[in-house]
Request: fold
Amino acid sequence: MRVLLVEDDESIAEPLVDGLARYGIVADHVATGAAALAAAPTDMVLLDLGLPDIDGIEVCRQLRRGRDTPLIMLTARGDEADRVLGLELGADDYLPKPFSVRELVARMRAVDRRTRPVPPAADDPVRSCGPLAIDTRTHDVRLHRLPVSLSPKEYDLLLLLAEDPGAVVARRHILETVWGPAFTGPGKTLDFHVASLRRKLGDPAWIENRRGVGFRLVAPA
Reply:
């Protein structure tokens, strides 16, 4: 993957470029909004909102005109309105500073999976993971061909994890996808639903917790 990193703070940008390289990700770094708008296309954009020349929200707005390149906002701003506006303008995710390279890479991979064009052969409405099958047309979930009754949020959570079985999905991405970007409910909401799903699937090994990162769906041995 090749990404455009738009970050004016060299003390953040340099180690971030090096950190991404350890994951096989090449980052083209620019320090201004004008340079970002003039840059060659890449596979993804990592956009800091606090730029010296053009407000990051405006850069996001212009980058989304006529382009479908995935975009993640990197922001030190605590204002929820900025985050919501950025998402409404077409940003695919946001990550507040400070953050770890590992969390950023997990977000990037999740966004890449979500925005990657689906090949024609993938029209099968059934998502499978071992003996677990999820029919996206009927919302039926079956385990060993037996029906599993789930609440709407449990179904949405399971379906998100089943989009790429074995891949870790970040906690924040799960909350924003299943409950919405403006979700302000109890902090244990996700953990409660994961625990409920594990019970209904009959084995806690179905949903693996990667502490500090997120969850992944795996078929128990």
